[in-house]
Write a structure and sequence with these properties.
mainly alpha, 2% strand
């Protein structure tokens, strides 16, 4: 149990740092790593669901600590946050409630495809031409609902999709990262609630699990990520992130391959 808990701590350290630094969500690391760890230590056919649910719950803590750091730099666009929030809450709750309808294998492959796409984008530094302005409340709420539902289904928090969406609409990269961290909070809250309810009706879950949340992993990851997420967020405002993006992209390729062959 001690070795298992140590793995959760290390996962939280790495995931929290990159979540704060790049604003793309620690779930990109947490979900594949937890899936692998759960295979070693737990039994059952819902291990991917547990990894996704636990990831969403930890993002609540990771995002909170990262947002506090970004806010000190006055980088969070709260006007955008307010318009995206209604949609991401509805989408996050919906994604969580329907998660049990998908097989573990399908969710793993869906996660892998998304992770591959994000890795390619980071590695090649692909950016959509920022020649648009943000839509109004209805448009942003619609975008938020799509971001929230897809993010919850694969446990990635929302920053992974929100950051490029904002950059595409002429928001500076630093403001996009900071605002994405804030948007991850309502996504994680709604998604966690949905995954709790969705998993409640599933039998044969391991001990120490409530719905699709496995508490030993949650505690280990949040203990570590609470401290490393602000470190990453501070570096966002001090360092060029291109080299780190490419290194992270290579890591995502490896994790995506692992998830695809789950």
């Amino acid at each position: 149990m001690l070795f298992e808990f140590g793995l959760y701590l290390v996962t939280g350290m790495i995931a929290g740092f990159f979540a704060g630094l790049l604003g793309i969500g620690g779930g990109l690391i947490i979900v594949p790593v937890l899936t692998s760890v759960f295979v070693l230590f737990l039994d059952g056919e819902h291990l991917v669901h547990l990894a996704i649910g636990t990831s969403m719950a930890t993002i609540l803590i990771t995002s909170l600590s990262a947002v506090r750091t970004h806010q000190k730099q006055q980088a969070v666009r709260w006007d955008i946050f307010r318009k995206l929030t209604p949609g991401v809450i509805l989408g996050g709750l919906f994604g969580g409630l329907i998660a049990h309808l998908f097989s573990a294998s399908l969710l793993a492959k869906l996660f892998a495809v998304i992770e591959f796409a994000i890795a390619i984008k980071l590695l090649l530094d692909i950016q959509a031409k920022p020649n648009r302005i943000l839509p109004g409340l209805i448009g942003q709420s619609t975008a938020g609902s799509l971001i929230g539902s897809l993010s919850t289904l694969v446990g990635i928090g929302g920053g992974t999709l929100t950051t490029p969406y904002l950059v595409w609409h002429n928001i500076s990269i630093r403001q996009a990262i900071a605002t994405s961290s804030a948007v991850s909070l309502p996504i994680a809250a709604a998604g966690t609630l949905g995954l709790l309810i969705s998993g409640w009706q599933v039998s044969a879950l391991p001990d120490y699990a409530t719905g699709f949340i496995y508490w030993p992993a949650f505690i280990g990851i949040t203990l570590a990520s609470f401290f490393t997420a602000p470190m990453g967020a501070r570096l966002t405002h001090r360092l060029p992130v291109k080299t780190l993006q490419k290194a992270f992209a290579i890591l995502l390729f490896i994790l995506a391959i692992k998830m695809f062959w789950f």
